From TrEMBL:
Name of the protein described by the UniProt record: Phenylacetate-CoA ligase
Keyword check for Ligase: yes
Database matches in InterPro entries: ANL_N_sf, CapK_Type1_Caps_Biosynth
Native organism taxonomy: Bacteria, Bacillati, Actinomycetota, Actinomycetes, Micromonosporales
Record GO terms (molecular function): ligase activity
């Protein structure tokens, strides 16, 4: 069978541009039809609803999801073991008695989560996990429309419209590994210039900046790690934009403090963040006041206290009539804010998204810690990554940036020890680039401790606590 991706990467730039635009026509048709526009109008109408209206709306949608779940083999069995019908589980106190669903449950038995046989018009969307851990989620046309509607509601808040041209920096390959200038391809129907993240370096950065300055693309979007790498190279080479972008948005990864400092320094704007998942179990988006809001009308989101101020994000998607997920443990961590936002939106406010539970380090006494904040912008870091080996010791891979000095390594160790203590052995390795996943994302921490046992231990702890500390609107 011919691999279309291999064919694409062997073609010259002009042919790649043409194929990208042809694909863009299909993407627009699939994402932005009449149903999308209806859902977008509904989401924007709900954007400033008061808490009471949102609460009633959520309970109605929760009941619909539970009814769908009762049709699936997996949840039919769960409800039977609980001695309950779906109607018994609609209220808040009953709903959080449903056991958490984990990624391994869905990966091992994907068809057991289908509420009906696959239908024409359904899409199979794969999550961005590494090989063997990603999921294939079946979505109906409404799920696709709802996902893009809630994302465009967020973009509209910041002045982005469907007609706004975008400079897109993701981790996916855009050009062949051996291809050179230009390091971008254009999707004309999608109004986006896709830049290759794999080719960004101090030697090539001027080509990227020259293209941005010529095109004056008003919207810059991409993975934090890719745009931060571009920013680091811009600062090192002393090149910059000669125009002010309308907005710079980030998604797909957690934004670290050192990435934020580099991006602000190079682009002169504070990036806007958004959190979403292919599973559609939660959506958190930034308002014009710079606060992160849970999109309460998109999914049933629980913030389950893990201790130390961290909560795991657990979610139940509302809009997918094909695959049903109840109380899905994302493995992502957040810090819940204690105040409300002055923008007037009713959604809960999240102070920060703090990566994944897999980014936690296991201490010798069995406690977990999230040491990401140890790597502050003041250290002069471009990137950092912690590997915890099977014996518990740590290796820190780091990439220096502007501001790195002879004392930075000692300062980094001192900062890290505040989180992990003195007992753990820590080794530091200077690298040109930290390890990335096949989709180009950067994981802050990588654990080699007994495979999935460590993650299961964290998940079990969260599940045990989830029934009593679930955070509701």
């Amino acid at each position: 069978m011919i691999n279309r991706e291999d064919v694409y990467f062997r073609l010259p730039a002009m042919a790649q541009n043409m194929l990208m635009s042809v694909a863009g026509v299909g993407v627009n048709r699939k994402r932005y039809g009449a149903l999308f526009h209806r859902r977008l109008a509904e989401y924007e109408d709900r954007d400033m609803w008061d808490p009471e209206r949102i609460s009633i709306f959520r309970k109605t949608r929760r009941a619909a999801v539970l009814e769908y779940a009762s049709r699936t083999p997996y949840y039919k069995s769960v409800f039977e073991r609980m001695g309950a019908t779906w109607r018994d589980l609609v209220d808040d106190s009953a709903f959080i008695e449903i056991p958490l669903t984990h990624k391994s449950d869905v990966r091992d038995r994907p068809n057991d989560f289908l509420a009906r046989p696959r239908a024409k018009g359904d899409s199979i969307v794969r999550t961005s996990g590494t090989t063997g851990t990603s999921l294939a989620i079946c979505k109906d046309v409404n799920a696709i429309a709802e996902m893009w509607a809630v994302w465009w509601r967020y973009r509209h808040r910041h002045g982005i419209t469907r007609g706004t041209w975008c400079a897109f920096f993701s981790g996916k390959r855009v050009i062949g590994a051996s291809q050179g200038v230009p390091y971008w391809r254009t999707n004309y129907p999608g109004r986006e210039v896709r830049f290759s993240g794999h080719h960004i370096s101090p030697a090539t950065v001027k080509c990227y900046v020259d293209k941005l300055n010529r095109s004056r693309l008003p919207w810059i979007h991409g993975f934090p790690s890719v745009i931060a790498n571009l920013a680091r190279c811009m600062l090192e080479r002393g090149v910059g934009l000669d125009y002010q972008p309308l907005v710079l948005t980030l998604g797909g990864e957690n934004l670290t403090p050192w990435q934020l400092k580099s991006i602000q320094g190079a682009f002169g704007v504070t990036p806007v963040q958004h959190y979403g998942l292919a599973e559609q179990v939660a959506n958190i988006s930034e308002c014009v006041e710079g606060r992160l809001h849970v999109d309460e009308d998109f999914a049933e989101v629980e913030l389950i206290n893990q201790g130390g101020g961290l909560s795991q994000i657990v979610g139940t998607p509302y809009g997918n009539g094909a695959t049903v997920l109840l109380r899905y443990a994302t493995g992502d961590l957040a810090v819940a804010a204690k105040d409300h936002c002055t923008c007037g939106r009713a959604g809960r406010v999240v102070a920060s998204i703090d990566g994944r539970e897999a980014d936690l380090i296991v201490l010798p006494d069995g406690r977990f810690t999230a040491p990401g904040a140890a790597f502050s912008p003041a250290l002069g870091l471009a990137e950092a990554q912690v590997i915890q080996h099977e014996n518990g010791s740590l290796t820190v891979r780091y990439v220096p940036s502007v501001g790195w000095s002879a004392s930075s390594l000692e300062a980094m160790d001192h900062s890290l020890r505040k989180y992990v203590g003195q007992a753990l052995e820590v080794n530091y390795v200077r690298v040109d680039e930290v390890q990335r996943t096949p989709t180009g994302k950067v994981r802050f921490a990588i654990s080699e401790m007994r495979g999935n046992d460590r993650t299961n231990q964290v998940s079990l702890s969260l599940e045990e606590r989830g029934r009593v500390v679930s955070s509701q609107l």
